[in-house]
Amino acid sequence: MAVTYPFSKRFTDFPQLFFGLLVAPACLIGGARFDVSPFISKTCEQRSTNWLRCYSFSIEPEEIPLVLMFVANIVWATLYETIYSFADIADDAAAGVRTITLSIRDHAKLVLAILSFLFISLLISVGITANYGIGYYMTTVLITSAMLAVQITQIDLENPGSCLWWFGHGTKYLGAAFLSGIVAEYLIRAHVLF
C-alpha cells in the first residue's frame, strides 16, 4: 500500500485520506500484540488449517475501542496531512496534482475544524467504550482539543512556513498529548500511578 501512496495524488482528489488509511493500521498491529484484533477470530484453533475461519472481520465488545482508535487515527492523519499539503498548494496546482486542499481552499479552516471535531468525538468514544478514567480525558481529550483549537485559529494556510511549522511542531506536541493520556491510563490500570 505504501508504494501506491504517491500515485494517489494522480488518480484521486483525496491523497490525505489515503495517507490516513496507510498509517492508521499501526493501531490494529498494536492491538494484535495484545490479542485484541477484529480480524482474528477468538474461536480459531492454534493450528487450524482453515485460515479463512481464523481471519474474518467480526468485532467483539472489547475490540470496539481499538476500531474507534483506528478510525480516529485515519481522521488525525488526514487532518495533519491536509495542513502539510497547504504548504505546497501552489506547486500542486501548477503540477496538476490532485489534492483535497485545492477543493477546500475557500473553506479550509471549517473543514479542519470539522475533522478536529470528528477526531475528538472519536477519542471520547474510545474513552467511553474502554472505560478510561480522568487521566485519559484530561490529557488525550482536553489538551488535544485545546491544541487543535489553537492550531486551527493560529495557522496561516496562505503561508507555507506556518503550515510546515504547525505540521511539524504542532503535530508532534499534539501527538505527545494524545499519547500521554493513553499512557497515563495504562499506568493507572497497572497500579503504577495512584
What is the number of beta strands?
A: 0
Q: Could you tell me the radius of gyration in angstroms?
A: 19 Å
**Class per helix and strand makeup:** mainly alpha
Helix fraction by DSSP (H/I, runs of at least 4): over 70%
Secondary-structure element order, N to C = HHHHHHHHHH
**Average of pLDDT:** 82
User: What percent of residues are in strands?
Assistant: under 5%
- Cα-to-Cα separation, first versus last residue: 43 Å
Question: Count the helices. How many?
Answer: 10
Which descriptors would you attach to this protein?
mainly alpha, 0% strand, 194 residues, globular
If you had to describe this structure to a student in words, what would you say it looks like?
Helices cover about 70% and strands about 0% of the residues. By secondary structure, it is mainly α. Helix 5 runs antiparallel to helix 8. The radius of gyration is 19 Å and the shape is globular.
Brief synopsis:
This protein has helices at 5-11, 15-23, 25-33, 51-54, 64-87, 89-95, 100-104, 108-129, 134-154, 160-189. With 194 residues, it is mainly alpha-helical.
Topology (elements, then pairings):
Layout (H helix, E strand, L loop, with lengths): L4 H7 L3 H9 L1 H9 L17 H4 L9 H24 L1 H7 L4 H5 L3 H22 L4 H21 L5 H30 L5
Helix pairs in contact: 1-2, 2-5, 3-5, 5-8, 5-10, 8-9, 9-10
